[in-house]
Design goal:
Elements (H helix, E strand, L loop, with lengths): L3 E7 L3 H12 L7 E8 L6 H4 L4 E5 L4 H10 L5 E5 L4 E2 L3 H10 L4 E8 L4 H19 L10 E5 H7 L12 H11 L4 E10 L6 H21 L12 H17 L6 H14 L1 H10 L7 H21 L4
Helix pairs in contact: 5-11, 8-12, 9-10, 9-12
Length: about 325
């Protein structure tokens, strides 16, 4: 029996997961962790994959929630860590996560260390940095998202693991996190548990992702209305940006008639972007000029997704 297991849900090109598995093989606690690759309805993996893992488990294609459940249930480890097949954990990642779980926490959340070199990727990383600053100050957080997350096994069993009715890699980890804190569990923030990642590489891809996030967030808030006000992760200024995005866009066409209204709305939007400016100033000041455009793009995507979520259904 090993102390901990790392579960990676996987469906895709086999070569794409090799860097993740190599990073896990280099963990400082390698002898104390079981690496589990949970395959989501694919053929038998090649030897180049099986040589890097301790357990390969497969099942019918049912999405990442089901794959993660298959993975952790196939081990007897007390601490279950999760990362994604496109993430590269730093060598001390597992050690930091496990130490946090041995403390007073039932779950733990790590961070992205980087996201790519393109402008949209650097702006997306600034967005994460803004959220990490918020979480570092929060008295309580309600999210352990699975690119860098850990859970005590007894709490996964208590909660029944991930809700497998979620068909996509979208908000199934938020659902589990919110159920955990609602049941009295606490989530620790581990900013030193870092994984590298490649964020969406185009503005269109980023918009589509945020649109989907906005939809699922509203659908999930209907299930957990207490999280609508504060979740220790979403900046309140982001909600203001969502509400202002459409009026700001329309006000541009009204400049000849109501210039004061346009100026006031734009100033309000710039004020709402202040936390993003501050995050960029301390992490990537070269993107400062693009922050308002990025914030508007994000606000429009989330707002349009939220509108879809109002009429959507969730279990």
């Amino acid at each position: 029996m090993t102390e901990a297991a790392v579960v990676i849900p996987f469906k895709g090109q086999w070569s794409s997961v090799i860097p993740t598995l190599q990073a896990l093989a280099a963990q400082t606690l390698r002898s104390d962790i079981t690496i589990v690759l949970s395959i989501d309805g694919m053929e038998k993996p090649p030897s180049a994959i099986t040589e890097l893992v301790d357990i390969c488990v497969n099942g019918v294609h049912a999405g990442p929630a089901a794959a993660r459940n298959r993975g952790w249930k196939d081990t007897d480890a007390n601490y279950i860590l999760f990362t994604d097949s496109d993430c590269i954990p730093e060598d001390s990642w597992a050690q930091i996560m496990i130490d946090k779980l041995k403390d007073e926490y039932q779950a733990v959340k790590g961070v992205y260390s980087s996201g790519g070199t393109r402008l949209i990727q650097r702006l997306a990383q600034v967005e994460f940095e803004e959220r990490y600053r918020l979480m570092a100050r929060a008295a309580k957080i309600h999210l352990a998202d699975t690119y860098s997350a850990g859970f005590r096994r007894d709490w996964l069993e208590k909660l029944g693991g991930f809700d497998e009715s979620f068909p996509l890699p979208e908000h199934e980890d938020v659902d589990l996190s919110w159920r955990l804190t609602k049941a009295g569990g606490s989530i620790g923030f581990a900013p030193d548990a870092r994984v590298a990642h490649i964020h969406r590489s185009s503005w269109i891809a980023y918009f589509r992702m945020k649109n989907r996030r906005g939809k699922w967030r509203i659908m999930l808030v209907r299930k957990f209305p207490a999280r609508a006000v504060r979740d220790g992760y979403t900046p309140q200024t982001l909600k203001l940006q969502m509400l202002l995005s459409i009026p700001v866009v329309f006000s541009i066409f009204l400049i000849p008639f109501y210039p004061v209204v346009t100026v006031v709305l734009m100033l309000l939007f710039l004020f709402s972007s202040l936390p993003l400016f501050l995050a960029a100033l301390s992490t990537d000041h070269s993107v400062l000029f693009f922050i308002p455009f990025f914030a508007m793009w994000r606000g429009l995507a989330l707002f349009s997704g939220a509108v879809q979520g109002v009429t959507g259904r969730i279990k």
